[in-house]
Each structure stands twice: as C-alpha cells, then as structure tokens.
Records
---
Amino acid sequence: MITIGENSTGDMRDVETITRTLRDAGRAVERGDPDGVAAMFAPGGDTTIFDFLAPGVTAVEDIRRNVADMAEAAVGEITCTYPKVTVRMLSPDIGYSLSYTEIDITTEDGTRTHVHAAVTDIWQRIDGRWLCVHEHSSLPVDVASAKAQLLQPI
C-alpha cells in the first residue's frame, strides 16, 4: 500500500516539479486566479477532469469558471493546500500523483466550508513541461446517508 506523502519514485527532479506544480495551483486557487490553476493542465481539449466542487466539471474551462465563481463568492481568504503528495513515475514522460488537498472558504452568507479531498492526477511531459492530462477528485462519503463527509480527514 502506498502511504500518501511518502514513497515517491522516479527522478526526484520530476517528482519535485510535479509536487511544486500542484502546490502552485493551490496558491492560484487562493488568489482566485483561474489561469494560474489552468496552467497545470494540458492545453486544448486533451484534459479530462472529474471534480468534486461542481457536478459536471470535466474540462479546463469548467475549472476556470469554478475558480472564478469561488473567488467571487468568498469573503476573506481562501486556503487551498496539498499537505501530502506522492508522485510515481511510470516512464520518463508519464507519471501520476496521489495527494490530499484541503480547501477552506467562507462565503458572503457567513457559511464556512472546510473540505478534505483525495486527488489523483495523471501527468505527461509535453514540450518539456509536466502537465496534468487527467484529474479525479473525491471526498469521503458516509454510505448509510449517501452524504459527503467534508470534514473527515483523509
């Protein structure tokens, strides 16, 4: 079993680049910068995304809109961190990352939402840059109630 935050494999420069790219995207979420978040993804229609923040989010343009909407709804700061990341290289140009992310936002109506999520990204080196070509985010779910457990640490 892989322990998230440990057991990365491959060239450590690639591991560090992918980890830094994820964390840069988190800082872009905090700034409300849709283009900064989109920068981690492959351009065009070559990226598929399954995002927990909004049903039907499947493309980079959806992520841009989602980040802009979140920034507009926020009162005060948004935090988005990747406290644990594991990267596994499958070849010199393909790898995947497993990570935990935490997002904290307060909206205009005073609602504070804190989310713990698990994220799996597939990375491809394209024109010398590591870019995400597929992302899947998930939340812990209480099967009995069929409700997401947003505060459940992963």
---
Amino acid sequence: MKHIFLLLLTISIISCGDDDEYGTPLEYTICGNELLSEANRIDQSELLVSDWPSTLRSYVTTEFTGFGISTIHSYKDVEGSEFLLATMDNQGVLLFDGSSIFICGDESFSLVTGDEDIKYEDLPQNIRDYIETNYPNTTVYEAEFEEGKYEIELKDGTEICFDQNGNFLGEC
C-alpha cells in the first residue's frame, strides 16, 4: 500500500477542466512529466496511419473535438507495460494504455479555454510564422481561442483570425 501511495505521489496526476470550442467542459487528466519522458520509453515505434486503433481515434474525435492526430507511437516502459502516445496537430500529446484506454494528456489542451489569453509562445508554430512573415513591424498584444478559432490582436490594433488548425481566416 505504501508503494502505491508513493507511485501516485510521484506521478503527480492532476485533473483539469476547461471549455472546448463548443463551451462544454473539456475534462482530462494532466500527465506528470515522468509519464511523458522519453527516458522511460523502450522499443518505441511510429504506427502507420492504417494501424491506428479505431477506439483511440474515436475517443479523440469525441473527447478532443477540433484536434487532429499527427502521429501515434507505440512503446513499452521499463516494466514492460505497453502504451500509445498520440501527438496532436497542436503538438500536444495524449497517453493511452496498450488497449487504447485514455490515461492522460499534457497541458497543451488547456489552451482551449474560451476566455483566457494564450501566450505567444503557446500559439501553433504556423500562426507565429504567419504573423512574423505578414506583420513584421508589430507584435501580438493578445491571443485567445474562442468559438473554434484563434483570435489574435496585434499591438497596431489589427485583429486576425485562424481556425483551430492554425490556418489564416482573415481579419476578425
């Protein structure tokens, strides 16, 4: 019993509730860094899209609406347990057990909050690249994710919008 308590304390899993683009609670468990550490992975390999488990894809589609899967890696930990690590299009990661049961995700999905500001460095890379290329003489004043899109206000007063995948939509 003492070992179980220490294990749970070490993993440091906390619960998080945010809003998705539809305004309903997006609840998930945030993984402790130990769970996502590459140092703990053995026999890691990337799965072909055709080998992605349908239960995992279905779970992501239902629970993480608006996010797509970029890659899925299969690996074992030092104790031989199998895991699946899904890297999402926002560069966030979701951890599943070998049976495609969701365990936890990193903090990337806390961006989907509706009213909280997003730090510039937390914006998807393609949005930052677009701003740096097309608005080189100004910087981001405020960034939010609302109603399924990123709304960016620049210091020069320009407001630009991007979809949830970071594609430019135009001025807001």
---
Amino acid sequence: MRTLLTLLGILIFAGCSGKEQPESIPAGTAADSAITFTPDDSAPAWFNELPADTIKFFARGQARSLRLNLAVDKARLSAQADLARQLQVKYPQRYENKEVPVSGAIVLHQKKIRDGKYWKVYLVLELLDQPER
C-alpha cells in the first residue's frame, strides 16, 4: 500500500513540476496527467487486450503530457501502481504493510503518439510472478 501511495504521490508531483505551460487548455481536460484506462481509437490493439498468463502479471499505463519524457514516466508509474495493486490482491499477507517490489517489471509494448502539442504514451508492463519459497 505504501508503494502505491508513493507512486501516486510522485505522479501527482510530476504533473505539477515544469516551466512549460500550454497557451490554453479546454475546460474539463487533464492536459498533463496520467489517465485511467479507456479504450480509444488511437490505442494499439495490444493495449486494449492484455495477455492472460498464470505466471506473469500484466499492467497497462496511459498518459498524456506536453513533454514526451513526462508522458512516458507517468504511463510507467500508472502501470507500476497497477502491478503493485495486483500483487497486493494476490498475496495480501505477504505485502501487508510492506513495499511491493515492481522494479523488475519490463516494458512489453510501448507506443508514443504526437497529438497536436501533446504526447500520448501507451505501454504494457510485464512482471514475473514470484511465489513465496
């Protein structure tokens, strides 16, 4: 739970940092924030349909930002938070009040799209399940 809160805190603060500001943002849009999964036309097929596997965890991350590096970081943090949640659900006793290790996750797929002034990033992370020995 602590890792999830830490990741979400970093995600929030990353959106608040930086000097570059858009000229105008339409009301009701989140210009520089990670967004939850919603299928859309620009998302690749691998993003909308995650593989099913018994020994691996998969998580998707999607973000939009004026800067490419922030969009990538936000998408990765979003996916890592989802991986941490999946591990906490599968192994509640193991990760109760402990940090959930998601640093071993690898990027399975990633797509970067220029959308006007913004960058949209879609990625899928994969993490091998490590049952307790």
---
Amino acid sequence: MEKGLIKKSKRQAIIVLSWLAVALCMGLVFFFSSQSGGESAETSMRIVRILTEFLEKHFSQLFVRKLAHFSEFCALSFLMYNAFFRTRIKKRLSPFLPVVLSAAYAASDEIHQYFVPGRVCSIADVGIDTAGVLLGAVVFYLVARLCIRLVTNKKRSDGDKADSRDGNEPQDKHGIDVP
C-alpha cells in the first residue's frame, strides 16, 4: 500500500511539473513578446552575435527572429503534449488539443504584439509558429514511441529472464530477486 501511495504521489508530481513547464514556456513567450521593438531587436542581435561567434557564420536578424518564433512554439507544443500525456487526457482529444491550443496561443501572441510599441501583428509569424507547433508534436510523438518501445523491450527482456529461471532464487511479492 505504501509503494502505491509513493507511486501515485510521484505521478502527480510529474503531472504538476509538466503543466508548470507549459506555463513557464507560455510565460517566456509572453515576456519576449512584451519587449518593445528596440528591446526585441537588441535581444535578437545578442543571439546573432553568440551564434555568429559560435558558428563563425553570418546570421541575419530576421532569420534569428523567425527561428526564435519557430523554436518557442516547437518547445511549447512538445511540453503541452508531454503534459497532456502525463495527465492522461482522453485519447480522442490528445492528438489534436495540444496543437490547437498551441496554435491558438501563437495567434493570441501576435495579437498581443500588435499592442506593444515597435512590434507588429503578422499572419506570417502565426504560420511560422504553427510550423514549430507541428514539429514539436512530431518530435514528441517520435520520442514517446521510442520510450514506449524501449520500456516494452525491457519488460519482454525481463520476462524472458524470469522464464529461464530454475525457480530456486527467492523473490519478493513483485517477482524481484531477493539477495
């Protein structure tokens, strides 16, 4: 019974942390969108300088800004999928709801930027953000499938080991060898 409570508490903590990660990502998007045009350009140029030094190539500010849009919403989508997966939302909704919510947040982010001095509302940015959302969804799907496959293979492997036992080794009530 005690192990069951610990397992349930751990699962609940993971769910809370998953949703906190989503909220943090959304907060970062809102923070960066609240920067004035000048502040946003300055932040982008700092990133350009770092990337230029690191890769020894020239990146345009426009490229970095669009890459930032794409990356923010790729991360948001990935985190939202993780939170939905951890929360075990109905499977009928799970594949679509994170994409719809992330894309809706992208649209609302552009509307928010309309009211920030020096920023503009851009349909093209909503498209870039939504492309990031879709990539985040695909990456989460692939990572989740890989993890499920690894866990399934490990369970099968552990089952094969249990089948090959001679039955003389002591085990606890969960079938784990006791030294």
